[in-house]
Amino acid sequence: MITKNQIKLIRSLRIKKNRIKHNFFLAEGEKIIDELLNSEMILVNLFSTSEKYNKLEKFIHLKNPELKQISNLKSPNKVLAIFEIPKPKEIDYNSTIIAFEEINDPGNLGTIIRICDWFGIKDIICSKKSVDCYNPKVIQASMGSSSRVNISYLCLEKIISKNQNRVVAADLNGESISGFRFDSNQIIFFGSESNGFSKEISSKIKRRITIPRYNQNIDSLNLANSVAIILSEIKHKLTEK
Asked: Which domain holds residue 131?
């Protein structure tokens, strides 16, 4: 049976300051939670209407109305769990890294985490004003990939100044990715969904790439789609070397 204090805690974790305070985040759905349970993530509590998890020490069985009471989803998916937020890992600057200036949409970030996982990208760098990677909507969209992709929140200006020769910006006015020479240790920067790069960041990045456009009536691509296309091109070219 779930307690009032547990309900209060779960509801509080929808807000970033409370996730920071308790160092916990929420996950929902069997697929996501199964992936997190098979990772290094530390389980705090698991609440489910299914007996599938009843061998777990921290399992609490719920009835459907109780799960609906704590779920963030319109149609609760059998299981909700609380996990500890892990400490960020050191960034591997010898591999391809993806960086974002003020990514604000949690669904976008979650999808991008999943895309990076698909292409074997281990590190994402976000500006400090970006959406929290432990926002429940980010966790939902990442489908468990958050356990395998390291997300760091850093000052982008410092990253650029220390790695100028390896920084490349995705930009409409850049060189086509089809002819660009990619290296295995580059940092690919993307601007915010609605405003692109700030003047401060844009002025510091020298090399730019773009996805070839075949219809001039379209002025932009969804951020996650752009990331997927560019990573596909990078992996294709690096595999050919």
From this structure: 97-240
